[in-house]
């Protein structure tokens, strides 16, 4: 039986979505696949975990998935691009700044 995290967006996920810029919010994905966004939200602050989540979502490793609709794929790809281009850049800047203090 699916857990609540499989059927609906969790409160933490709703806060995470609200904090994202409007142009990258995966609204359709949240409506159709809330478990996907709950997993991404849980991994968001951990670069390797979120990277693995994106890879798992966008590349079928098992060969037996139906796949996502184009809308959902587009949203996940947009979110991945945002993460890679914006957030990892901010993380690098943070560590570069603090490395000089050590």
Task: List its traits.
mainly alpha, 102 residues, globular, single chain
Give an account of the 3D structure.
With 102 residues, the protein is mainly alpha-helical. Helices cover 70% and strands 0% of the residues. It has six helices and no strands. The chain has helices at residues 4-7, 11-19, 27-32, 34-43, 47-58, 70-99. Helix 4 packs antiparallel against helix 5 (47-58) and helix 5 (47-58) runs antiparallel to helix 6. The model has no long low-confidence stretch (mean pLDDT 83).
Q: So how many helices?
A: 6
The count of β-strands is 0
Radius of gyration: 15 Å
| Cα shape | globular
In short:
With 102 residues, the protein is mainly α.
Write the layout of secondary structure elements.
Layout: H1 4-7, H2 11-19, H3 27-32, H4 34-43, H5 47-58, H6 70-99
Helix pairs in contact: 2-4, 4-5, 5-6
């Amino acid at each position: 039986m699916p857990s609540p995290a499989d059927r609906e967006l969790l409160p933490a996920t709703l806060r995470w979505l609200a904090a994202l810029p409007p142009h990258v919010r995966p609204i359709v994905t949240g409506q159709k696949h809330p478990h996907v966004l709950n997993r991404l939200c849980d991994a968001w602050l951990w670069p390797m975990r979120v990277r693995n989540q994106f890879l798992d979502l966008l590349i079928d490793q098992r060969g037996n998935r139906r796949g996502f609709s184009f809308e959902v794929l587009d949203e996940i790809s947009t979110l991945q691009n945002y993460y890679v281009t914006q957030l990892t850049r901010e993380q690098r800047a943070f560590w570069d700044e603090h490395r000089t203090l050590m």
